[in-house]
Amino acid sequence: MNNHYNVEIPSDSEVILGILNNSDVVLKKLYLAYFPMILQLVINNNGNEDEAKDIYQEAIIVLYNKVKRGDFELSSKLKTFIYSVCRRLWLKRLKQMDRYGGDIKDFEDYLPVEEDVERHQERDLQLNKMGEALKLLGEPCKTIMEDFYMHNKSMQDICERFGYTNADNAKTQKYKCLQRLKKLFFQQQ
Amino acid sequence: MKNDQLLEMIERYLAGEMNPEERGEFEALRTKDANVEAKLEEHRHFTGLLKQFNERHNMELRLNAIHDEIDVHTMAEDLMAHPSLIVRLWRQHHSKISVAASIAIFAMLLTLFFTGNLTNKDPRVEQLKREVDKVKSDQQILKNGGNRLFPKQPKAGPTIIAKYRGTGFALSSNGYILTNFHVVNGADSVYVQNADGESFHTKIIATDAEHDMAVLQINDPAFKNLGAVPYGFKKGKSDLAEDVYTLGYPTDAAVFGEGALTSDAGFHGDTAEYMVSVPVNPGNSGGPLFDSKGNVIGIISGRQTQTQGVAFAKKSAFILKAIKDIPADSLKTKDITLNAKGTLAGLSRKDQVKKLKNYVFIVKVYNQ
After folding, report:
1. Class for domain B126-368, per CATH?
2. Checking CA distances to B235, which of A34, B68, B324, B330 falls within 20 to 30 Å?
3. Which GO biological-process labels does this protein carry (chain A) (predicted)?
4. Looking at residue A147, what DSSP letter applies?
5. ipTM score of the complex?
């Protein structure tokens, strides 16, 4: 099926190495290789193209994290793993939307991947909370947090950017911002 | 130590910016003070989340960039399992179709209900079970009053008035009577009364609703034996234009009616029936239909309401079948032995009727 789109299917070990090296080329190959399979699954089971995209990208992230944690065993094929995760995610979403008709039309073999999906969704929930907290935080705190904790900028850079006269002021400001962010994060249910 | 100072130490420790001396001190503090350890863990987790959030965000950007290069729409067209036109129409409009169908069915049932077509009875054919109405019962009361003047009248069954009645005829000498199923349907008790006015209690032992037949058995202690049944039952088919006649009880006295077999098929072309031109009335239901030789060729079951003088009779072959189908345990010890050949063949019509009159009964049906 995939060959129909003249897509090169990367070997599983190539993908694993690529993920570990954060390779853009491999990510693209991987994405193009299996997207048609998931698109087919979703659009033939009450979904649309955008939903297929969401589900597929989630599955790629699940795979990424699993490989980076070092717990992806090459006992199953990547294709089967991706399909199984997408299938599981799509079933869950269908049920949430009350669109689940009782059976799903399958195109591939699949494995039980509940554990991976649960883990992913738990983490996703935390990250969404973080996103919300950052949104509520406001400037300049948000940028300070992003610069320092996400983009690994030094306090020196931050001082210059925000025009703080000495590093102690900047540190105090950063500390306050972090405390507020924590508060916002833990306040959410 | 102030919290912000502690945090700075934690950050420096985690970033590996401490010199070995500071590091040693801090690790000592960690093991000594659980509070410091907890703070460290919390901070590590929280900043980890921030980093992961950033990673997820970057990953999404990368994936979206790749995704934008795909012509998803064309791909989706190709991958969609294309169901047939009918299936697609059904999927898109099934709720509307269902509603429309429900309304149509409802409307149809309503129409049938109000036109009277919903019952199994066709309005154009009338079953000849007789409902004994008020006027009739008044007459009966007068007659019962008269009974007191003639105390030697034979036992006449229950004094309450039968609700319905029809005709029945003997199948065999040991007390089996055949009538229409519609005559005895829903009965609480069924009596048969012979030409002499004697009533016997009977039990319904078998019914065949499809062919509208019921077999009764006289179980009255007063009943002895009917004597040999003079008529036989014809196995084969009778021919068109054959002379036929019936004897029945549309009134309290036996009524003879004659005519011809006019069609091999009955109402709506029902091949289980003959059409005959014999005058029949309510109460004739269940009466025997004889040919000129005095053989039973059918059982009167109804007449057409729109045409005068047209009646229907179930064919004798179905009588034989109905009797054959009676489960053996319903018959107990007494078998039904039908005459294949009667003794009436040579006799004139008048003598035939005289002989068989005693084997034709009024069937009286009592219910609540």
Report:
1. mainly beta
2. B330
3. DNA-templated transcription initiation
4. I
5. 0.84
